[in-house]
């Protein structure tokens, strides 16, 4: 999980002064955290004990800077992440934890396909949970000045977990960004939404699938998941569609999409409002994204990751492989995407960073320029668009 919101409850407490927001001497930074910890409800002696053996981990910084996999397009990304083995294991674990998934559906309204998809992508159903020291990772990222405001609160959350005996700074390991357990939750999420699913009196996300799945469902519920509603549905679209009407920021009643010629590939369209999503443009797979789809971006901010996970969840619940997988026009390389983003920034667009990744902000800018240039405005950047802007 890459949900990086500040989850520590500080109701009624004024903003706390940060003695060392980021950077500088690492040991001095740690000393500043000790001074600040009581304001977060963590005794100074607990903070000092937690930080005693913590060191800066340069491999964490390297991992933070190297996330090139998200430069892949949706079709290629899906093919890499969705294997027959993951589908088969999804069916096996769905059966093995059937009672837990039924309980989750009743209590939280979150379908098993969604949880199975994230469980698979995050840790291969608990088999690969990461071997980065969690305390080192969190303090390193808080000390680093790229995103300290996201990770600093998680350090204090980890201290709180340590104080209650649920995290050992010397031995607890997980992902490079500090997530722990089978569905990769940050310490703040564990504090706020952790659930003892197996009834043993502890929330142990590394070893208990029941705890991990129940906690993941509770996180989604807290983020606004709407019980018993769909999230993503593959559709077929006519070639005459107004492509400028597509995109996550333009929802409309499904009946209106139907009137425009959009058809469900299987089953029936829901009566909920939905956005028409074209991950690789008008010639590739097409989906209606319902309100629950937006909730998934609170779990992970990557457009291609969320779209692939949401699609995989539908596969795990019986949907077929998407259509038009090889019909779309090739996109840009990472270097070309960065060049395009630079040109869009020059024209006044906020693309969220010139990083070579086709996120939702870049897609919106691409669609606006396609509309301006009289091109099919499907938000899929091609060499033709890059040439036109250059």
Would you kindly provide a brief summary of this structure?
InterPro entries: Lysozyme-like_dom_sf (IPR023346), MltB-like (IPR043426), MltB_2 (IPR011970), Peptidoglycan-bd-like (IPR002477), PGBD-like_sf (IPR036365), PGBDSf (IPR036366), SLT_2 (IPR031304). Helix content is 45%, strand content 6%. The chain has helices at 26-36, 44-51, 58-65, 74-81, 84-96, 98-108, 112-123, 134-143, 148-163, 187-193, 209-222, 254-259, 291-295, 303-316, 334-346, 360-373, 383-389, and strands at residues 132-133, 173-174, 232-236, 252-253, 263-264, 273-277, 286-289.
Helices, strands, pairings?
Blueprint: H1 26-36, H2 44-51, H3 58-65, H4 74-81, H5 84-96, H6 98-108, H7 112-123, E1 132-133, H8 134-143, H9 148-163, E2 173-174, H10 187-193, H11 209-222, E3 232-236, E4 252-253, H12 254-259, E5 263-264, E6 273-277, E7 286-289, H13 291-295, H14 303-316, H15 334-346, H16 360-373, H17 383-389
Antiparallel strand pairs: 1-2, 3-5, 3-7, 4-6, 6-7
Helix pairs in contact: 1-2, 4-14, 5-7, 6-11, 7-14, 8-9, 9-10, 10-11
Keywords: Signal
Pfam families: PG_binding_1, SLT_2
Protein name: Lytic murein transglycosylase
Question: In terms of structural class, how would the helical and strand content be classed?
Answer: mainly alpha
* Number of helical segments with 4 or more residues: 17
Span between N and C termini? 38 Å
Low-pLDDT parts are 2-17
Signal peptide: 1-17
Domain Transglycosylase SLT: 26-313
Pfam families: PG_binding_1, SLT_2
GO biological process, one term: peptidoglycan catabolic process
């Amino acid at each position: 999980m890459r949900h990086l919101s500040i989850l520590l409850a500080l109701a009624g407490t004024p903003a706390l002064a940060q003695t060392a927001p980021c950077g500088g001497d690492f040991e001095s930074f740690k000393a500043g955290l000790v001074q600040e910890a009581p304001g977060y409800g963590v005794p100074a002696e607990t903070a000092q004990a937690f930080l005693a053996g913590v060191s800066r981990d340069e491999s964490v910084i390297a991992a933070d800077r190297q996330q090139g996999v998200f430069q892949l397009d949706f079709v290629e990304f899906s093919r890499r992440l969705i294997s027959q083995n993951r589908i088969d294991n999804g069916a096996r674990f769905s059966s093995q934890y059937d009672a837990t998934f039924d309980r989750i559906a009743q209590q939280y309204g979150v379908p098993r396909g969604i949880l199975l998809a994230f469980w698979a992508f995050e840790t291969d159903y608990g088999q690969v949970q990461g071997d980065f020291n969690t305390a080192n990772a969190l303090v390193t990222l808080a000390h680093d000045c790229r995103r300290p405001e996201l990770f600093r609160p998680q350090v204090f959350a980890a201290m709180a977990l340590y104080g209650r005996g649920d995290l050992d700074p010397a031995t607890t390991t997980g992902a490079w960004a500090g997530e722990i357990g089978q569905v990769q939750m940050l310490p703040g999420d564990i504090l706020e939404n952790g659930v003892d699913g197996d009834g043993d009196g502890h929330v142990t996300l590394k070893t208990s699938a029941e705890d991990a799945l129940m906690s993941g469902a509770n996180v989604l519920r807290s983020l606004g998941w709407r019980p018993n509603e769909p999230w993503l549905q593959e559709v077929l679209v006519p070639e005459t569609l107004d492509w400028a009407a597509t995109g996550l920021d333009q929802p409309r009643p499904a009946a209106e999409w139907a009137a425009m010629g959009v058809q469900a590939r299987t089953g029936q369209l829901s009566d909920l409002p939905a956005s028409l999503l074209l991950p690789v443009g008008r010639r590739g797979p097409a989906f209606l994204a319902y309100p629950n789809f937006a909730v998934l971006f609170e779990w992970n901010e990557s457009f291609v990751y969320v779209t692939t996970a949401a699609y995989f969840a539908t596969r795990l619940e019986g949907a077929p492989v998407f259509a038009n997988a090889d019909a779309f026009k090739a996109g840009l390389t990472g270097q070309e995407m960065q060049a395009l983003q630079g040109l869009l920034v020059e024209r006044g667009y906020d693309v969220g960073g010139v990083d070579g990744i086709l996120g939702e902000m870049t897609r919106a800018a691409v669609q606006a320029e396609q509309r301006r240039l009289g091109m099919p405005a499907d938000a899929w950047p091609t060499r033709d668009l890059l040439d036109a802007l250059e």
